[in-house]
Automatic annotation (TrEMBL):
NADP(+) binds at residues 166-168, 232. GO terms for cellular component: cytosol. Homodimer. Signal peptide: none annotated. Pathway: One-carbon metabolism; tetrahydrofolate interconversion. CDD domains: NAD_bind_m-THF_DH_Cyclohyd (cd01080). This is Bifunctional protein FolD. Belongs to the tetrahydrofolate dehydrogenase/cyclohydrolase family. The lineage of its organism: Bacteria, Pseudomonadati, Pseudomonadota, Alphaproteobacteria, Rhodobacterales. PROSITE patterns: THF_DHG_CYH_1, THF_DHG_CYH_2. Residues 140-284 form the Tetrahydrofolate dehydrogenase/cyclohydrolase NAD(P)-binding domain. InterPro entries: Aminoacid_DH-like_N_sf, NAD(P)-bd_dom_sf, THF_DH/CycHdrlase, THF_DH/CycHdrlase_cat_dom, THF_DH/CycHdrlase_CS, THF_DH/CycHdrlase_NAD-bd_dom. GO terms for molecular function: methenyltetrahydrofolate cyclohydrolase activity; methylenetetrahydrofolate dehydrogenase (NADP+) activity.
Amino acid sequence: MTATVIDGKAFAAKVRGQVAAHVLRLKEENGIQPGLAVVLVGEDPASQVYVRNKHASTIEVGMASFEHRLDTGTGEAELLALIDQLNADPKVHGILVQLPLPAHLNSELVINRIDPAKDVDGFHISNVGLLGTGQKSMVPCTPLGCLMMLRDHHGSLAGLDAVVVGRSNIVGKPMAQLLLGDSCTVTIAHSRTKNLTEVCKRADILVAAVGRPEMITGEMVKPGATVIDVGINRIERDGKTKLVGDVHYASAAAVAGAITPVPGGVGPMTIACLLANTLTACCRANGLAEPKGLTA
């Protein structure tokens, strides 16, 4: 069996196109422009790249982009004051504080200072609770992207057996909640799960988000299963740095029915869903219908 490759790059471009079309209608019919504010503290090189990409994507779909770059030594009071200012700004519909923050800042305190309605990362404790109880919330971008791709590939997910390998607050736990919401039978596994191979092998949908390079191999995949690889790991191989997922791609692709590659799978969907969440937040703030197909 040769797995169908789920092209996240192409799917993300489609999502961005849907967002751009909806943003244009909001401008023309309602005189409203969704706005995303991104706050970056410090000089972390990877974070700077992410912020640049987010800014470019925000402009591309016709949204307003508000960047706030703060020095590494910025104090907690100053950062919280900025968040309060963005919470009160009607032009800002989504707020994202780029993580990780410098060590002297309390990330939980900072994230929970964001207005939950503007928390487009879906990390605020209120949104976590709403998602966990099946209520309307802002949903973390990476799990939302995975859900969109699964719905697109399968149509209905009802009754499918799903295994999520990984229990992080950012991916594993919310991914499990989203799959439950679509009526899957869900197991959360992790690196310490006993008989992990047997657990994974019963899954119709296998989501790998454990943070260990190529941990999930073909022998752990049920024939015909859909494999979603959330991992992004840099490893040294043959004297070169290579980007790999949490799934051993070659062996898994020989068994699976469909699989996401790394790179070009889940990664591009994260920023696309950030834009979708900002659009959703804008619509909710203005009492307008939410965009179809872009929310959980």
